[in-house]
Amino acid sequence: MQSKQLYHLCTFLLLFLVNGAVYAQQVRLSGTLTDAETRTPLVGASVVIRDQLSGTVTDATGQFSLLTNRRGPWTLVVSMVGYEKQQIPVASADQPIPVSLKASTQVLQDVVVAASRVEENILQAPVSIEKMDIRAIRETPSATFYEGINNLKGVDMVTSGLTYKQINTRGFASTGNSRFLQLIDGIDNQPAGFGFSVGNMFGLSDLDVESVELVPGAASALYGPAAFNGALLMHSKDPFQYQGLSAQAKVGVNHLNDPNTGAALYHDYALRYAKVFNNKLAFKLNASYLHGLDWFATDYTDVDATTPNELKGRSNPAYNGLNVYGDEVNRTITGIGKVARTGYEERSLTDYNVYSLKLNGALHYRITPNLEAIYSYNCAKGIANYTGSNRFSVNGFSLIQHRVELRGANFFVRWYTNQEDSHDSYNTRSLGQQINRTWVRDLNGNVVPANQADEMWFTRYTTAYQGKAPGVTASNHAAARGFADQGRYLPGSPEFEREKTRLEGIQGLAGAGILSQTKMHHTDAQYNFSSALEKAGLSKTELLAGGNFRQYSLFTNGTLFDDRGGRILYYEYGAFLQASQRLFADKLKLTVSGRYDKNQNFAGYFTPRASAVFSPTPAHSFRASFQTGFRNPTPSDQFIKLNVGPITILGGAPSNSAGMNVYENSINSPTVGGFVNGFLADVQTGKTPQQAVMANKDKLQKSNVAYIRPEKVQSFEVGYRGLLNNRVAVDANYYFGEYQNFILNQVVIRPDSPVLGSDGQINPAAAQDILNSKYQVFQLYTNASDRVTAQGATLGLTYFVPGGYTIGGNGTWSAFDLKGANPNNIPAFNTPRYKTNVTVGNRNLGRNLGFNVAWHWQDSFDWVGSFNDLRPGRIQAYHLLDAQVTYRLPALKTALKVGASNLTNRYVVQAYGSPAVGGLYYVSLTFDQNMR
C-alpha cells in the first residue's frame, strides 16, 4: 500500500516537473548588499521575492542576482543573522538595487516558526519560545549544538550515555520522553517502536543545522498528540542558501581522572556539500561520524527494598546493586532470610565503545519560482546506552527515512516514512540474569539446564549455610555464596564472553536480544490563506489550516508484541485550523486554534488554544494564552503482550486483549491477600473449606480497569518580552497546568470462573480458583482518575555590554502539587525545583577572536523511574561549566575552536541509574567555503 502511495506521489511530482519546464519570460533582479555602518559587503545574506520561493544568497562581494517570471513591481525580502530584516520595493529591473542592512538586537529581531507554524517576529509569538540561530549554534561552548540546548530557559536535559541525551520541558521527565515532540525539517524522527526520539542520534550534524526552536509546554493544538510537554523544531540548511563545501574535524578526550578507566579519545567528523544549478536545481550531501568511549554506570548502591538501611551493602545476603544485574533474582529461605544471586556489574555486560553514523542527502527542484519539490533520504546507525526499565544497549540500531515534499510560498504537502531496525540490541539486566543460568551445578557437580539454574543455586546456598556441604562453614553467608557460585563464569573469561555473545543474539525471554523492526508512514499538509485574505482587503487577518495522517506498522516477532502472525497496523489522523486578527493599529494580536485528532484505538480529541499578544511599542510585548494538550499511549502502552512467567504484561488497546476476558473478568490483586488470610484463619478454627470460602469471598473485589486512554492537560500562561534602555533584553513567563488520565499499570488476577455470580456478588467458584491456583496474573495498562497540577516561571535577561560583550542569565522555578492524588497513580515529576544558566561571550574579543562561557546549575531532587522499580533515588545538586575560544582564519576560510563541556570535570548523575558524566575537552577545525 505504501509503495503505491509513493508511486502516485512521485508521478504527481513528475507531472509538475513537466508542466513547469517552460517558464514565462524571465526578469533578472540584481544588486549589492552592504553593512549600513561600515559599508562593507555582506556575504551569505538571503534575498527572496516576497510571496515566492525564488531567492538567492549574496556572494563574496555582497552581490546578488535572481530570476523571476512575475511582472513587477516586486518586493525583495533581505535578511541575515545579526541584521534587521528589510523589505525593499523594486519598481524596475533596469538598474542594480543597492541594499544596506542595519545591525540588530538579535533577541528582538529573531524570526520564529514553531510558536504559530508561520513566520513571525519572536516578539509577536503567542507562547513562550526559545531559539538558537546559526551564530549561537556555531558559538556554543558545548561539544555539540544539541548539548547546547540545555542552556535555554526551562530545559531539562538527561544524559543516558555519550550518544544519547533526552530533552524535556515543564516536568514529568523521563529518559525515554514520549511526552515531547522533536521535528527535523517537519519530520518526526522517533523510531516508531520506541515512541520517542533518541536524542540527536538520528538527527543533524553541527554543519547542517541552521536553527533550533523550542516551544515549552502543551503544543498539541498545532502539532498533535506527541507535543504534550512541548516541541523542538530543528531546521537544516537549505542548499539554495548554503552552498559549497564545509568540513569539520573535532578531536577530544574524556574520562580524565575516571577511576573506572583511563583517558579516552573522542572523534567527531562531519562533511557537507551543496550545489545550485541555475537557481532551479540544488542538492546537498551530509556525512558525520562520532565515536568515543561512553560514560560508565558504576553506582553499586544496595537498593534492595526490604533491607533496613543500616544493613545494606556488599555484605548484605540480599544485596541488589543499582548497576549490577542478575542479583535481582532472590528468594526468602526459611531459617536463613532473603538471599539474592551474585550479579554482574554493568561494565562487564555492555559495550561502552559507542558511535553515531549519519548519512543524508536532499534534492530540491524549483518547478516554478513559487513551487519547489524536495526529496530527502536519511540513514543513521549507531550504538547508545539507554536507561529505561532496564539498561539497554541500543546496538547497531538503524533508522532510515524517506521524505517527498511539494512546497509553495503558502503551502506544503509532505510524505515521509521512518523505518527502524533493532535486531542487535539487548537488555543488559536480562543478559546478566541469563548468563547466571548457564553455569550452575547441582550437588554432584553437574551443570543443570537453564530453567533449573536459579532453584539449584538457592539449593546449594541453603545446603552450605546449613552445614551440609563438605568443607563449608555453617551459618556463614560468604561461605554459602562461595559454594553456590562454584563454576561461575568470571567477566572477561572465554566462557563468559562466549555466553554473552550467544545470549545477546537470542531474542525473547530465553535470551537478552531485542527485535524491533517497525515502520511509520506519515502524510501532512498545510495551507496559509493570509495572502488571499490580504488581496481581499483583509490584511490584518491570518488563516492557517492543515492536517495529517499517520500509519504505524509494528513487528517484534513475538518478543514484545503478539505479532508472530504478522505486523500490527493502526492509524491516526488530525486536522487543525488557526485564525489571527490584528487590532488597534497592530498593537493587539488575537489568535485562536483548534485541532481534532483521532487514533484508531481511541475516541477523538479536540484541543483548543487561544492567545493574545499586546505590543504597546515595538520594544515591548505582553502575551497570555490558554493551551490544551493530550498524549496518545505509545505502541508499547497499547500492544505489549509479554508473558514473563508469573505475570503477563498486557497493553491497554481493546484489540490487544480481545477474547482474553481480562479487563472484563478479573479481581483486584490487593484484595486477594485479605481473602486468603481470612480463609486460612477460618479453617484453623474448624470451619469447612466451603464455609470458609463463603465467609470470606466478599473480601475479593472485582476489578474495574478501563481500557487505556490518552493523557490530558490544560495550561494557562502569561509572559512578557522586551528591550529596556536598548541594552537589556527581558523575557519572563508564568504557567499553571492541570493534568489528568496519567497512564499507569494495575495488577489484576483473572480466575478461570466468572468473577461475579448471577446475584451480582463474588462467585464462590472464582474464589475457589484463587485457592487452587486456577488463575493468571496480568499487569494492565490503564489511566489514573486523579488530577494534579504543576506550575512554574522563568526569567531571562540578556545585557548587551559596550565592546561587544553579551551577558545572559536565566532562571526557572518549577513546582508540583499532588492535590491529594495517590502518588502511585502519578508519574514522577523528575524536575529540579530551581535551575539557572549564565552565559558570557564576545564574538569579536580581538581580531578574529571570540569566546563563550556557559554555566548551568540545578537543585537536587528525587528521581523516580522504572529502572529502580519506581523507588526514588536522589539526584544531587550540580553545576556544569562549558567554555570555548574560537579563532577565525579568513584567508583559509577556517575556524579553530578549543573548548570543553563540563570544564571542571565534575562527575554528575542526571538520572538515577544512569552513568556519572565527566568532562569532555575538544579541539575542532571547521572549514566553510562560504565562511561569513
Structure overview:
By secondary structure, the protein is mainly beta. Among the domains are: 2-104, Sandwich (Immunoglobulin-like), CATH 2.60.40.1120; 309-350 and 429-507, no CATH class; 637-708 and 745-783, no CATH class. 13% of the residues lie in helices and 45% in strands. The strands form 11 sheets. It has a 22-stranded antiparallel beta barrel. A hairpin with a 3-residue loop joins strand 39 (711-724) and strand 40. Mean pLDDT is 91; it is low at 6-24. It is found in: Cell outer membrane. InterPro entries: Beta-barrel_TonB, Beta-barrel_TonB_sf, CarboxyPept-like_regulatory, Plug_dom, Plug_dom_sf, TonB-dep_rcpt-like. Residues 1-24 form the signal peptide.
Secondary-structure blueprint of this entry?
Blueprint: H1 2-19, E1 27-35, E2 46-49, E3 55-57, E4 63-68, E5 74-79, E6 86-90, E7 97-101, H2 106-109, E8 111-112, E9 120-121, E10 130-132, H3 134-139, H4 145-148, E11 155-161, E12 164-169, E13 180-184, E14 187-188, E15 209-216, H5 220-223, E16 230-236, E17 244-254, E18 264-277, E19 281-293, E20 324-325, E21 330-333, E22 337-340, E23 344-345, E24 353-368, E25 371-387, E26 391-408, E27 411-421, E28 425-427, H6 428-435, H7 450-465, H8 477-484, H9 494-504, E29 513-514, E30 519-528, H10 530-535, E31 541-554, E32 568-583, E33 588-599, E34 605-617, E35 620-631, H11 635-639, E36 641-643, E37 648-650, E38 667-668, H12 670-684, H13 689-696, E39 711-724, E40 728-740, E41 743-751, H14 764-771, E42 775-783, E43 788-801, E44 805-817, E45 834-846, E46 849-858, E47 861-863, E48 873-875, E49 878-889, E50 894-901, E51 908-909, E52 916-917, E53 920-928
Helix pairs in contact: 7-8, 12-13
